[in-house]
Amino acid sequence: MSWDLIGHEWAIQLLRGHIVQDTLRHAYLITGPAGIGKKNLALRFIQAIYCQSPVEPGIPCRICQTCQNIARLEHPDLFLVTVEEDSTQIKIDQIRELIHLFSLTPYIASRKIGLLLNFERANLHAQNSILKTLEEPVGNSIMILTATTADSLLETITSRCEELKLNTVPISISCKGLEQYHSIPAEQANFLAHISGGKPEIALKYHQEPAALELRETLLNDHHQILQKKSVERFAYASKMEKDPRMVGKVLDTWSSLWHDILLQAGKSQAPIQNIDKKSEITQITNNIDLKTAQKNHK
Known about the structure:
Layout: H1 9-20, E1 27-31, H2 38-50, H3 65-71, E2 78-81, H4 92-102, E3 113-116, H5 124-129, H6 131-135, E4 142-147, H7 155-158, E5 162-165, H8 171-182, H9 186-195, H10 200-208, H11 210-226, H12 231-241, H13 245-266, H14 279-286, H15 291-298
Helix pairs in contact: 1-2, 2-3, 8-9, 9-10, 10-11, 11-13, 13-14, 13-15
């Protein structure tokens, strides 16, 4: 009774129940950190709504033409809104186009669905422009928004949506899902489940894109080396990184995960560390600092 997704079973059961009981909401907000699986959950939900040959009520077959079109974001009644390649924000014109499309009769389905990804990146005008549609839904249309947190959106938006707050997936569940749904060998699945920090899509990215795994290794090695350097060399590294804002984010995320592990060890926590391949380095650093220093560096 699964959608073949890793984790978030409670959310799957809730959404499936809305389909089976015919109690679909007009707006959903799926929140959680990047890589947690927000987009995949939304797409599987849409497949479950639209599928013409469901395995069971609320469980899409994922092989019919409709399900395949949704997976490719090519269904005529599904409208995607996300940050365009030449921009850093979702703009008001994109929302206006979505609202116009919602005013038209569905092409082949009984309802239109708007999928608004990473809506925390919508500018204020774009967020305000969607309010009327959320207040007065058009026909049977459904809006599905994703964002890192509800706090990143206007309260007037979040109050009109049913929020599903996704949390990181336990290592055991992530590992099992990687094996079961993606045929990844047990040892590799365990490694990926750990280093992804409970974020299934990050684990899959590491598996499918060797370059992403290589970048993680490079950044962790940079961290190890930078600790041995003097201030002038550290500033030079920082100056180099700041020229590429996207790289800055990757550096901070990677190094933060390492210091979280250091904090766990310094605090004698029984929780598993994320960077299991860097255990000796983590232990070495922990042996040379106190808990207060670990807390300071993790912030």
